[in-house]
């Protein structure tokens, strides 16, 4: 994009304010002036003013020229004007009646000695100007080296070549007077041009270099400020600014010019404050003035033995000064209460700090309720998928399941940190098996050798095992003996019994005791 007065190239980038029209915002050239009289028509009896303002080197230098060609030049056009022993090429920066005001501001007179505009710049003039402008960078570097070799205390800032290459102007800064007569001879022999030395100040140097100020905008000296007034630290004191050289200095190293912009407003506001109130006497001691607040009309005082500040109104300070003249001292200062806007904003927000008011137990309860609701929902879905009608008491059964789940959750909370129930049952079963094994070993050792593993029942007679009645539990630790097959001859060896060479090995081959969980009979449905 480009501004309204600039043309745009094929690649989308602005071409600038060459011959495409002027830029009225000051973004392209330095020290631009907005022509607010350009759209106002003149009467028929009045002819347009014949002097125009031409800027050189991107607005760093401006001069006035008489238009003797009787051609109408617009802002932004390139023109060829008279120079020193030749011609120069510049850009029209201002035309019309506003040029009179600019000449009056710069104290330039309309005399016949004013230089003339020769013509519109041709292609040859522009090509020649570009060639000589390329020499400026090399000339600046070489001139600095020559000045350093002569030991001159000066700083060369800029070199401006004339469009035809016959003259060169060297801008420099120096604290003291410099004798550069020998330097001019060396420059003339080195660059083959007519040499002009022009001394400028630190502020003019910053305006030529350009830059961005601490406010975020372009420097005033490079955009619109032409006359530089002296600035001292008194202006900062009137505005209650801390005397910090780093913050009050600009890019040029001097105090910022903007310190003078609001100085008159502060001086007008300070007229209502008493001038002889630097110190006031009270019963607690002498209070010294620290600052004046022109926005709230308050004067801040503090005691020498304390860092606390006491804001007083102008009327209260005048009353204390009147009492001091009469030899009286007030008991207290009667400082006013200053209400800042920040506190009012906080009060309007209505924010309440609830940190620590929400406990984790309430969050856990809510989580448990949500989980219980999810379980109930899943149970209902499963019952609906199963189909059929629920038997009577189904609702009570669902409520019973809920109660059981709640009891189970309570038991799990109580048993947190205890040993799991399965581990306790397993150890109890192992202990019972070990005790039963020991009892069996003692019983087998007391029996005769022939009765240990044999079966003393006569052949063909098999004792019938008595099954326990339904609902009746088997005695713990007892199990009926198991026999293989049907009829077994008397004295024949059986599994786990000694016969012939194989003798009964005692308790080692005894059947294992059944586990407690397998001995519990099933209840009737």
UniProtKB/TrEMBL annotation:
PROSITE patterns: PSP1_C. Pfam families: PSP1 (PF04468). GO terms for cellular component: cytoplasm. Residues 385-398 have a biased composition (Gly residues). Residues 365-379, 399-442, 459-479 have a biased composition (Basic and acidic residues). InterPro entries: PSP1-like, PSP1_C. This is PSP1 C-terminal domain-containing protein. It comes from the Bacteria. PANTHER family: PROTEIN PSP1.
């Amino acid at each position: 994009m480009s501004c309204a007065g600039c043309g745009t190239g094929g690649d989308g980038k602005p071409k600038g304010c060459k011959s495409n029209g002027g830029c009225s915002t000051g973004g392209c050239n330095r020290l631009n002036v907005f022509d607010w009289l350009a759209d106002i028509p003149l009467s028929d009896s009045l002819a347009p003013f014949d002097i125009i303002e031409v800027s050189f080197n991107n607005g760093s230098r401006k001069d006035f020229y008489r238009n003797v060609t009787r051609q109408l030049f617009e802002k932004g056009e390139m023109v060829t004007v008279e120079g020193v022993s030749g011609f120069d090429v510049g850009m029209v920066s201002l035309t019309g009646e506003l040029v009179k005001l600019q000449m009056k501001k710069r104290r330039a007179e309309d005399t016949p000695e004013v230089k003339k505009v020769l013509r519109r710049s041709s292609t040859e003039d522009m090509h020649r100007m570009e060639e000589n402008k390329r020499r400026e960078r090399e000339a600046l570097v070489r001139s600095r080296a020559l000045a350093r070799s002569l030991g001159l205390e000066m700083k060369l800032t800029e070199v401006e070549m004339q469009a035809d290459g016959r003259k060169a102007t060297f801008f420099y800064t120096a604290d003291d007077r410099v004798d550069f007569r020998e330097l001019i001879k060396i420059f003339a022999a080195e660059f083959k041009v007519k040499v002009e030395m022009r001394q400028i100040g630190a502020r003019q140097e910053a305006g030529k270099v350009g830059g961005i100020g601490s406010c975020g905008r372009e420097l005033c000296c490079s955009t619109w400020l032409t006359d530089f007034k002296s600035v001292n630290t008194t202006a900062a004191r009137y505005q209650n600014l801390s005397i910090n050289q780093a913050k009050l200095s600009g890019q040029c190293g001097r105090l910022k010019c903007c310190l003078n912009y609001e100085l008159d407003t502060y001086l007008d506001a300070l007229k209502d404050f008493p001038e002889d109130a630097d110190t006031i006497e009270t019963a607690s001691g002498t209070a010294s003035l620290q600052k004046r607040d022109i926005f709230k009309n308050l004067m801040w005082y503090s005691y020498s033995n304390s860092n606390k500040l006491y804001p007083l109104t102008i009327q209260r300070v005048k009353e204390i000064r009147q009492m001091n003249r009469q030899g009286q001292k007030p008991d207290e200062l009667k400082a006013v209460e200053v209400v800042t806007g920040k506190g009012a904003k906080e009060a309007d927000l209505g924010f309440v700090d609830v940190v620590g008011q929400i406990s984790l137990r309430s969050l856990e309860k809510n989580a448990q309720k949500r989980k219980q609701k999810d379980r109930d929902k899943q149970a209902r879905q499963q019952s609906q998928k199963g189909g059929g009608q629920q038997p009577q008491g189904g609702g009570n059964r669902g409520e019973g399941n809920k109660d059981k789940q709640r009891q189970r959750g309570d038991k799990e909370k109580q048993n947190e940190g205890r040993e799991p129930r399965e581990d306790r049952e397993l150890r109890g079963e192992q202990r019972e098996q070990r005790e039963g094994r020991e009892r069996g070993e003692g019983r087998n050792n007391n029996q005769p050798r022939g009765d240990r593993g044999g079966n003393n029942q006569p052949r063909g007679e098999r004792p019938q095992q008595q099954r326990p009645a339904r609902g009746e539990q088997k005695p713990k630790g007892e199990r009926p003996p198991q026999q293989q097959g049907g009829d077994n001859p008397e004295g024949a060896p059986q599994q786990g019994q000694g016969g012939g060479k194989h003798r009964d090995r005692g308790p080692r081959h005894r059947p294992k005791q059944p586990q407690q969980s397998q001995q519990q009979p099933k209840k009737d449905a």
